[in-house]
Structure formats: structure tokens, C-alpha cells
Amino acid sequence: MAALKDEVKLFIVNALACFDAPTQVSIAVKEEFGLDVSRQQVSCYDPNTYVGRNLSQKWRTIFEKTRTKFRATAEEIPIASKAFRLRGLGRLGSI
Fold first, then answer.
1. Would the pLDDT of 19 be above 80?
2. 12 or 3, greater pLDDT
3. Inside any domain, residue 1
4. What are the phi and psi torsion angles at 22 (to 5°)?
5. How far apart are CA 74 and CA 38, in angstroms?
6. Which residues of 57-88 are buried (b: 16+ CB within 10 A; e: fewer)?
7. Which of 15, 36, 81, 84 registers the highest number of CB atoms within 10 A of its CB?
8. Inter-axis angle of helices 22-33 and 6-17, to 10 degrees?
9. Which domain holds residue 35?
10. What is the number of alpha carbons within 13 Å of residue 42 lying toward its C-beta?
11. Residue 28 lies inside a defined structural domain of this protein
């Protein structure tokens, strides 16, 4: 595993906290920073995975704050609401 700079680690932690898949994050790191990072290495920055269980408190705190903020923001977007989507599907079914 290559040692990553803090800015890359922050990028990975934030992306994972926003529910991006490790493969997506790996590709995004390649595009953003020009670094090849395996999805296994990316998974180490998700405290909810087995390999991420030993993530330092610094990154764990950032992950939790980002995830909480993401969930709160997502609730403000109508399409993120299950009721909104079901209502739209109901309208399509009645046409």
C-alpha cells in the first residue's frame, strides 16, 4: 500500500462517507490526483468495514461528521425521499 498524503485521505474519507463505492472512489482518486489506489486500500478508510476498523480517530470523526451532514442534506432533496419517488411512480401508473 502506498502512503497517501492527508489531502488524498480526506478526499477518500469524504467520498466514502457520502456512500460512494470503493471502486468509484479509486477511479476518482486516479482522476483527481493521478494516483493508483486499490479499492482494498480505499476500504481501509471506511470505519464501517472490517478492514477500516482500526481507522484513526481523526479520520473516523471526519467520516461521521461528513456522513451526518450528507444525510441531512440529502433529506432536503425531494427525489431522495422514498415517499416522493413512490408518489411519482403512482402517477405514472395511473396514466
1. yes
2. 12
3. no
4. -55, -35
5. 28
6. eebbebbeebbeeeeeeeeeeeeeeeeeeeee
7. 15
8. 140
9. 6-93
10. 23
11. yes
Classify residue 10 by burial, with Cβ atoms within 10 Å: 0-12, 13-18, 19+: middle
Q: pTM value?
A: 0.80
Rg of the chain (C-alpha set): 17
* Under 8 Å between Cβ of 62 and 9: no
59 is written with which cell numbers?
A: 479520520
pLDDT-derived band at 90 (thresholds 50, 70, 90) equals confident
Mind listing the pLDDT tens digit for each residue in 36-86?
Answer: 999 999 999 999 999 999 999 999 999 999 999 998 887 777 777 777 778
C-alpha grid cell, residue 60 = 473516523
pLDDT value of position 41: 96
3-class SS of residue 67: helix
Q: How many domains does the chain have?
A: 1
CA distance 22 to 29: 10
